[in-house]
Amino acid sequence: HDFGVACLGALRSSPASLCVGGMAGARSAEASRASARVAARSSGACGGDASAPTVCVVVWGMAGQTVLGPVDVPEETTVGDLRRRVVGSVALAEDLTEASRACGRFRGGCVGMGALGQPAVHLLFGHTELSDATALRDLRHKDLSASSDTLEISMVLTRVSCRAITWGDGKFGGGSATASGQLVAGVVAVHCTERAFAVLKDSGQVVAWGDSRYGGHAGEASKLLIAGNVTALCGNERAFAAGTEDGRIITWGDASCGGDVSVINRGRDRLKAPADPVVALHSTDRAFAARTASGCVIAWGHPEFGGDILGCESDLACGVREIFANGCAFAALKESGAVIAWGDAQGGGDAANARPKLTRGVESIHGTKRAFAAILERGAVVAWGDPTHGGAMPDCVFADVASGILTICGNSRAFAAVKAGGGIVTWGDAHSGGDSSAVREQLQEGVLGVYSDVESVAFAATKATGALVVWGQPAAGGDVGAASECLSSGVTAVVSNGLAFAAVKAEGGLVTWGFPSSGGDSSAAVPALAAAGAPLVGVCGTAMAFAALTRSGGVVTWGTRRFGGVLPEGRQAELAEGVVVLRSNGGAFVALKPARIA
C-alpha cells in the first residue's frame, strides 16, 4: 500500500533533461500557429497600446496547440511571471496529456501510473531555454523579426530528475546501501510495498531495495527492469508490477501476491501488443489489475484478493474506464457507468445485492478494507461488501444518502459521506467512526472535507470555519484531548497513519494527537519546525512516525525513531531544504531532491 505522500511543486530541471520530441514545429503545429496569428490580428487580441508599451505573446504547447494567448502583456513582464501564468492556465491541463505522449517513457505519467508531481514547465525561444529573470522587452528588441508582430514562445514539460534519500527501519528500505549508487540522480517517481521501495528513473529503468520478501530485490526480473522501457509502476502489500512500452508486464516480490505474472503472460498476446499497451496498474493487498488502452482488464495474484477474473472476463474485455480497489477486491467502472466487481466475495468482490443499482450512472467508487460504496447520479449512494466494514447501511441512513452526496471517505471499517449542504452521514463499524452521534450537532453543516486512512479507525472533518471535528476510537485519534483549542480554527489539511493524526493549519503550523509514540506527540519536532523558519505544506507517515515538508523543502520528523521519527545525523543537513517529494511505506521514508541541488 502507498502509506503516504507529501508533494511540493516540481522544480525546474536542467536544460539537459529537456524533452524536445514533442515540441511544436511539425507542419500541423505550424498550421495551428498560422491560424492563431490570423485570428489574433482579425480580433485585435494583440492590437498594441501606445500609452503602455506591451508585447503580444503566444505560448505554444508540445502538440502545437495554444496554451496562452495571443495576449498583450507589459514589456517589463519577466519570463518567470509568464511561466507562472502558463502553469495556472486551464489549457495546460490538456497539454499534460500531450507531454506524456511526446516524452515516450512518461506516456502514462499523466494518467495515474504513479509518477509523482506534475511535470516541470520550461519556456523556450527558438531552441534556447529562457531564464525566469529575462524581461520580454529584451526578447522583443533582440529577436523579434520585422515580419512578425507576435512573440512566439514554446512550452516543454519534463519530469524532475531527483536523487533519493532514505531513512527509517532498514528492514523496510530505510537503508538503501544496496542501491545507493543508482539513486544519486535520475529518479522521477517512487512506489512502495509494506517493506520495500522501487523507483522509476528517467531512463525508464527501475531500482528496488528493502525486504526481498516484499519486492526489495527484483531477482530474475532485474534484467528486464534495466532495459530502460518501463512506463508504469505499482506496489501492493508484498509485490511490485511494472508495465513497459512494448506492452509487457514485469513483476517481482511474493509470488502468491502477484510477484509471479508468468501464469497470465503465457498465451496472453495482448500483454505484449504495443497496439494495446498497459495504461494503468492497480492493486489490492495481494493482487494486481492492469487496464490497457482499449479498456481491457487483466488481473493476477492471490485469487481471494482479486487476482482471478474468472466469471467476468467478457465484461472486462473492453470499455473499462477506471479501476478501484479496497484491501481484497476490485471494482471496475465502465464507460457505460456500470460496475463489475471481483475478488473476495464477502469483501466487495460480489456486488450481487447491489447490482440492480450498478448497471449504469455510477460516478465514483470508494472503499474501506472490505467494502465499497458507489456514488450514483444525483448523489445517491449504494454500498456492498462486508457489513462490519460498511458494506451494508442501517435503515436510518438510507434517506440521508438517497441524494446529494458529493464525496465519500473510507477508513479501515467505516464510511463518512459529505452531503451538498456540508453535512456528514456515517455508517459501518460504530467504534471505528461509523457512529458519529457524539458529534452529530457539529456535523450538520459546513463540513468541507473528511480525512482518514485505510488503516485508521477514526475520522477527522474540517469545517468552513477552520475548526476540526473528530470521532471514532479515542486512542487512535477519535479524541483530540488537549489539542482541541488549537483545532478550533485554521485547519486546512489532516493526515493519519492509522494510530495518530497530524493537522496542518492555514499559517503552516502543526497540531498532532493520537498514540503519542506513533506521532500523536510532536513536541520533539517543535525546535526543528522553529529552526526551519518556513510553513508546512504537507505531511506523510509510516506506521509509527510522521515526516513534514516545509515550503522551503525542508523535512521535519517525529514519532518512533525506528520507523523514521528521528532523522539520522548524516541526513539532517541534506534534508534541510530542497526536497520536493516525501514518500513512506510501513516503516521508512524516501525524500526526492532535485539532483542539481547539493
Features of the shown structure:
mainly beta; 5-stranded mixed sheet; single chain; 36 strands; 4-stranded antiparallel sheet; 598 residues; globular; 34% strand
What share of the residues does DSSP label as strand, in percent? 25-35%
| Major beta-sheet overview | 5 strands, mixed
> Cα distance, first to last residue?
31 Å
Helix content: 10-25%
Continuous helix count:
9
Identify the overall geometry.
Answer: globular
3D architecture notes:
By secondary structure, this protein is mainly beta. The protein has nine helices and 36 strands. The strands form eleven sheets. It has a five-stranded mixed sheet. The chain has a four-stranded antiparallel sheet with strand order 1-35-36-7, with no helix packed on it. Strand 9 and strand 10 form a beta hairpin. The longest helix has 17 residues. It is globular and about 70 Å long. The two termini are 31 Å apart. The N terminus is likely disordered.
Write the layout of secondary structure elements.
Elements: E1 4-7, H1 27-43, E2 54-60, E3 66-74, H2 79-87, H3 91-102, E4 120-125, E5 128-129, H4 136-143, E6 151-158, E7 162-168, E8 187-192, E9 196-201, E10 206-210, H5 222-225, E11 230-235, E12 239-244, E13 249-253, H6 262-265, E14 278-283, E15 287-292, E16 297-301, E17 320-325, E18 329-334, E19 339-343, E20 362-367, E21 371-376, E22 381-385, H7 395-398, E23 405-410, E24 414-419, E25 424-428, E26 447-451, E27 458-463, E28 468-472, E29 491-496, E30 500-505, E31 510-514, H8 526-532, E32 536-541, E33 545-550, E34 555-559, H9 569-572, E35 581-584, E36 588-594
Parallel strand pairs: 2-6
Antiparallel strand pairs: 1-35, 2-3, 4-5, 4-6, 7-36, 8-9, 9-10, 11-12, 12-13, 14-15, 15-16, 17-18, 18-19, 20-21, 21-22, 23-24, 24-25, 26-27, 27-28, 29-30, 30-31, 32-33, 33-34, 35-36
